[in-house]
Amino acid sequence: MAINLSKGSKIDLTKNGKNLEKVCVGLNWGAIRNKSFFGLMSNTEDVDLDGSAAIFNANKQLIEAVYFRNLLSKDGAVLHSGDDLSGDSKGDDGKDNEVITIDFLQLNPDAQTIILFLNSYQKQDFSTIPYSKIQIFEGTPKKIDNVLASFNLSADKLFAGYVSMIMGRFDREGSIWKFQAVGEPLKNARVFDTIDEIKSKYL
């Protein structure tokens, strides 16, 4: 049964006493619905969020970033499904907009931390985006076999004025990888500016 995480919650990536070798990270978000004419009519505004994974070593140095312009890491361990430009236009359809697959066995042995974050490409304020969710599951980007954990962030005043956020992070502790839900806003809009901010504040 999936665990519903809250900020700061951490889980071990194990199953039946064994370390999981591979997981998928699903990212899901909604388009903005703007009301007009005294609330009687509305229109939908596309939301182009960019999900990314930044891989760091124990010395807090960036090994590689996997994002919409670099869909596969050099070691073949981290795969991005591709860029979603609009979000869910008719409410939550239960499907992930972008999926990042991580094969822990193939990962660069120097990898210590993987941070997952979202950037609003059009710099839309995160407080206006109706929801953003992350789920960790076994399976493939097109077929979910078993959801391990989920973390749901709805529009919140905490995110007012921000256009990026850290969703969560994987950290290696010995031979075990653990996932922690974060849900913190970031100021920078572009991928590598965001990575610099992450390095200075969260590593």
Summarize, please.
The chain is mainly beta and 203 residues long. The chain has one helix and 16 strands. It starts with a strand and ends with a helix.
Keywords:
203 residues; 6% helix; 16 strands; 6-stranded mixed β-sheet; mainly beta; 1 helix; 6-stranded antiparallel β-sheet; single chain; Lipoxygenase-1
**Gross CATH architecture:** Sandwich
- CATH homologous superfamily annotation: sav2460 like domains
| Count of distinct strands | 16
Ranges with pLDDT <50 over ≥5 residues? Answer: none
Nearest-integer average pLDDT: 92
Instruction: Let me know the largest β-sheet.
Output: 6 strands, mixed
Count of individual domains:
1
CATH structural class = Mainly Beta
In the CATH scheme, what's the topology name?
A: Lipoxygenase-1
Shape: globular
Element-level helix/strand string? EEEEEEEEEEEEEEEEH
The portion of residues assigned to helices is under 10%
| Strand arrangement in the largest pleated sheet | 1-14-13-5-11-10
Distance between the termini: 31 Å
